[in-house]
Write a structure and sequence with these properties.
single chain; alpha+beta; endopeptidase fold (from Nostoc punctiforme); Muramoyl-pentapeptide Carboxypeptidase, domain 1; six-stranded antiparallel sheet; 8 helices; elongated
């Protein structure tokens, strides 16, 4: 098991290097505060607290609409430049660090039993596990799989990188199960039969129940 964990972690490091450089909901820091300060100066109703939440995302969307930029609520190079009048800093390494932190934290709970409604290392359900692991990296996400599915940015399977969320329709229609992508077509999740474990997206069961992926970072 330790060898498998090491292999997966190394794969995750190589995969995160291509993560898109965008600020999004959940990000925190001085760069976010600077963006918020400019939004305040432009009359948008946000707080310059350095935490990228829903209000900041809504303000960014409104600003993007006013500039003829795709209104996705993400701060990419075009939005950053239009808002602050300068080039966006390289944040790919920071995003990679967060993804690696999430992958590393996720491994600490392999073998923890499944508990319906569980949100702690005493027992997890699938979305409780994902929320807990992301919180360990300082990122707040919604509690349930269906809401988590609506929270992130949709991405194609071919664009998956470590730290992305993968979703499945299992016991009910829609997103009813979630896991964290590790790289090399593997994901970690709280299985109802085996607890926190690693599985392959290519397995017959999971490939037939897979419905999509979302990027949080």
């Amino acid at each position: 098991m330790r060898a498998l964990m090491a292999v997966v972690f190394l794969l995750s490091i190589s995969a995160t290097g291509n993560a898109a450089g965008q600020f999004r909901v959940g990000d925190q820091g001085e760069e976010i505060a600077e963006v918020q300060e400019q939004l305040v100066l432009l009359g948008y109703d946000v707080m310059a607290d350095g935490s990228f939440g829903a209000a900041t995302a809504d303000a960014i969307k409104e600003f993007q609409k006013s500039q003829g930029i795709k209104a996705d609520g993400l701060i990419g190079p075009a939005t950053y430049s239009a808002l602050l009048g300068k080039d966006m800093p390289d944040i790919s390494n920071r995003i990679g660090y967060l993804a690696n932190s999430i992958v590393s934290a996720s491994m600490n709970y392999i073998g923890v039993p499944y508990v319906f409604g569980g949100t702690s290392p005493y027992g997890f359900d699938c979305s409780g596990y994902v929320q807990y692991v992301f919180a360990k990296a300082g990122i707040s996400i919604p509690r349930t799989a269906d809401v988590q599915y609506d929270f992130g940015t949709p991405i194609s399977t071919t664009d998956l990188v470590s730290g992305d969320l993968v979703f499945f329709s299992t016991y009910t229609y829609g997103a009813s199960h979630v896991g964290i992508y590790l790289g090399d077509n593997q994901f970690i999740h709280a299985s109802s039969s085996r607890g926190v474990t690693i599985d392959s997206l290519g397995s017959s069961y999971w490939s037939s129940h897979y419905i999509g992926a979302r990027r949080i970072l």
